[in-house]
């Protein structure tokens, strides 16, 4: 095992990889509850959901999507770990699940079975793009400054998520955001977790992020902020969503204009979310070589196959998770980290009641600390070269402000060719960047609502 994953080459050990895998899992365990709640319509008020059902809009069950979410994460993380050998975990992606439910099922009135078929097709298209190295070529064509910007932007993005989950940053109808109340016990617990984790990191303790989460959880239970688990073991539900996509997929009226827009949107968002995540996590772990990602094709194939498998099981698009950076921050450097994550998701199917102690206040410190680590990529940007610095800044700042990695990348990619052309350095820009310029313009003008 150590030889296959090259522990010695990467300066890691079984202990480090296991801690990293558990850390990543804990940082992304929320998806086991958020995704089923989202796809089953659980985020809707009961009367609104009932009104949707009365109008003929149905939703898959929470228990079925819970199992589908876990299985998709297991398959994706195993392939990424064993095949691509990266410490990157996969699961159904946030944002895409909201688009699946609110835009496609509710907004467009498309049955959830048809929406799953659209996810399935996007995954198949990704597999072919990966086989012919189109996705890898595009990623390698991205200039280093935008890769550094993507990594730093993701750092700010996940730190913002952490601050939001902690209640340190809250919504304000006038100023959009403001400082939260420090009288909230949950917020104080998250702040305690940030301080403890920061102190452990300062002491350079291996697995500091993981230990910080454990200490925060224990303290939260002791003082009564976090409820103890209601149970330990439960039998996973059978996913009745399994294979639900095939009937609509082979119907004669499936490929409508609306469905093609849905498929293209799934393709667009997942493509650049995955690209940004891979580059960001790989940069943090020191995997990038000459601005390129080694084994990029294998990493991209992993998320493509996982998307197909997830759709068959009954969940929205499966993608690489930015929370993997928490595991990298805890010392994870090989695919064995992702294998551990897969094992944790497998166990989670049976220990659903026990996971109730992993609250957003517990994971928030990990996201904030890792965001600080990823922000170090800011130092790699030549800020005095404005033709590169301004597109990079736009990429960085719009990720947290629009709550979208893909949007930040798109806006930066639109501006970059323009500034380089005006600078007189048009020939230094890869032709693919010019192609992406028009692709992103097309997306914002005609596809994005």
Describe the structure.
- There is one protein chain.
- This protein is mostly helical.
- It has one domain (7-447).
- It contains 20 helices and 4 strands.
- It has a two-stranded antiparallel ribbon. Strands 2-3 form a two-stranded antiparallel ribbon.
- A hairpin with a 3-residue loop joins strand 2 (169-172) and strand 3.
- Helix 7 runs antiparallel to helix 14 and helix 13 crosses helix 19 (405-423).
- The protein is globular.
- It starts with 6 loop residues before the first helix and ends with a helix.
- The relative contact order is 0.21.
What's the structural blueprint in terms of helices and strands?
Elements: H1 7-10, H2 14-28, H3 31-39, H4 46-54, H5 62-84, E1 90-92, H6 96-107, H7 112-131, H8 134-141, H9 144-166, E2 169-172, E3 176-179, H10 185-202, H11 208-222, H12 246-249, H13 257-285, H14 296-313, E4 318-320, H15 324-329, H16 335-348, H17 360-374, H18 386-402, H19 405-423, H20 431-447
Antiparallel strand pairs: 1-4, 2-3
Helix pairs in contact: 2-16, 3-5, 5-14, 5-16, 7-13, 7-14, 9-13, 9-17, 9-18, 9-19, 10-11, 10-17, 11-17, 13-19, 18-19, 19-20
């Amino acid at each position: 095992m150590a030889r296959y994953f090259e522990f010695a080459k990467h300066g890691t050990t079984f202990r480090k990889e296991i801690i990293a895998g558990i850390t990543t899992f804990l940082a992304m365990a929320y998806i086991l509850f958020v995704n089923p709640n989202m796809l089953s319509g659980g985020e809707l008020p009961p009367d609104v959901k009932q009104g949707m059902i009365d109008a003929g809009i149905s939703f898959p069950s929470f228990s079925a999507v819970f199992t589908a979410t876990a299985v998709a994460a297991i398959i994706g993380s195993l392939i990424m770990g064993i095949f691509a050998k990266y410490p990157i975990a996969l699961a159904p992606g946030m944002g895409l699940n909201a688009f699946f439910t609110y835009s496609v099922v509710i907004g467009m009135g498309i049955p959830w079975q048809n929406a799953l078929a659209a996810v399935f097709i996007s995954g198949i298209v990704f597999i072919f793009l990966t086989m012919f190295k189109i996705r890898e070529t595009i990623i390698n064509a991205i200039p280093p400054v935008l890769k550094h910007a993507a990594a730093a932007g993701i750092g700010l993005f996940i730190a913002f998520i952490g601050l939001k989950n902690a209640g340190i940053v809250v919504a304000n109808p006038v100023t959009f955001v403001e400082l939260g109340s420090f009288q909230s016990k949950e917020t104080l617990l998250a702040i305690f977790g940030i301080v403890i984790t920061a102190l452990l990191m300062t002491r350079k303790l291996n697995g500091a992020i993981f230990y910080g989460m454990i200490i925060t959880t224990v303290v939260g239970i002791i003082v009564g902020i976090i409820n103890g688990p209601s149970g330990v073991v439960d039998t996973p539900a059978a996913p009745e969503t399994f294979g639900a996509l095939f009937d609509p997929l082979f119907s004669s009226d499936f490929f409508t204009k609306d469905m093609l827009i849905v498929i293209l949107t799934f393709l667009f968002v997942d493509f650049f979310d995955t690209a940004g995540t891979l580059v960001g996590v790989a940069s943090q772990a020191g995997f990038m070589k000459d601005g390129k990602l080694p084994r990029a094709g294998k990493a991209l194939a992993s998320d493509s196959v996982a998307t197909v498998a997830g759709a068959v099981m009954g969940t929205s698009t499966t993608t690489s998770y930015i929370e993997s950076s928490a595991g990298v921050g805890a010392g994870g450097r090989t695919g064995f980290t992702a294998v551990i994550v897969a094992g944790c998701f497998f166990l989670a199917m049976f220990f659903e009641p026990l996971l109730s102690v992993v609250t957003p206040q517990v994971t928030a410190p990990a996201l904030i600390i890792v965001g600080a680590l990823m922000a170090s990529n800011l130092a790699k940007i030549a800020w005095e070269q404005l033709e590169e610095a301004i597109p990079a800044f736009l990429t960085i700042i719009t990720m947290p402000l629009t709550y979208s990695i893909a949007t930040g990348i798109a806006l930066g990619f639109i501006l970059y060719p323009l500034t380089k052309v005006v600078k007189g350095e048009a020939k230094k820009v890869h032709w693919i960047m010019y192609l992406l310029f028009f692709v992103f313009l097309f997306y914002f003008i005609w596809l994005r609502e």
